[in-house]
Amino acid sequence: MTETDRQPVGTARLLLVATLLWLTGLYLRVPILVAPALAPFIADDLALSQALTGALTALPVLMLAVGAMPGSLLISRLGPRHTLALALFLAAAGSAARALAPDVGLLLLTTAVMGLGVAMMQPALPALLPRWLEPRHLALGSAVYMNGMLMGEFVGAGLTLPLMMPQLDNSWRLTLLAWSVPALVIVALLYLPIRQRRGPVERPAWIPDWRNPLTLKLGLLLGASGSLFFGVNAYLGSLLEQRGELARLDSALFFFNIAQVAASLVMLAMARHWVGRRKPVVVSAAVSLVAVAGMILTSGWPSIALAVLMSFSAGIMLILLVALPPLLAGDGDAGRLAAGNFTVGYTLSFALPMLGGLLADLAGDIRLALAVLLGYGLLVLPVAMSLDLRRPE
Can you tell me the distance from the alpha carbon of 90 to that of 18, in angstroms, rounded to the nearest whole number? Predict the structure, then answer.
């Protein structure tokens, strides 16, 4: 079966594609989000400093920006399905290799390899959607794999300690291996005989078109969504500790992360109506910023509730933005548009929380870290208002 074969999208085929997209989406986050849960055990075993412990989570986020361009290059050379399979294998191999690392140097190296694999998966999925799905199903396909990704955040962060470790002799090494092996099964499943719609006749370009306003605009908005989520996730504990409310941290983190899953479920129902429209992007961005401002100005459960609202609205915004490249770009350009978006977006998602943390350390007030994220979001809100989401002829 060739990439030029065509067949109608039957229910069984659509269900198979949706299952593969969801499972692949799961591994966009599981390898990254198991690290914070296992970090105390890894730190004790390998005598890591606080900075090195934080790098186990921060380094993969940085790699999400660094690896987007290599992913786009591979898509132009190998095609999106082969690129996705190779990237998923790399992510699984890097994640499993962390379990065998005898020292901090190899641990960070294997963590970087894992992050590189996940980074290359991200542009491959938007590039694959037009090959596997009819245009009327593109928004739903994006919502499905993003639901898998956000579920992966919850699974990796929420189920590792209570479910996985007790079954594996409380070994962080065995736990990393156990989370990594299923990804290899998904690699094999990606080669099930799914006929693909016609791809580009010529080899597509891979370097992002920086003259396309959407490349930078969507990247800036992804940076707002990502920095809010990663930043608040990182500093919520410090904020509660500063207010003498640290006992509420477990509940706060649970609801904060499950809110993203709720957002993805809402988008499964509303993707057809919201994706490709400017107003939902503006509203979700504005709600996120109002919620962060409320977090800074309130305390107690109201502040936690606003953090959960921010997580929910930022999750909606993320899915709305990630779904746009396959909808707005041609079959050959979706991958490079997504790669440009992710390069800009995840660079900001890494840099802004770091900048906020440095300023908060200097001022001795963790609320300043949140104020940095809020300030950036306010600066780019007009970008959302100026989006032109009409697909060019």
Answer: 22
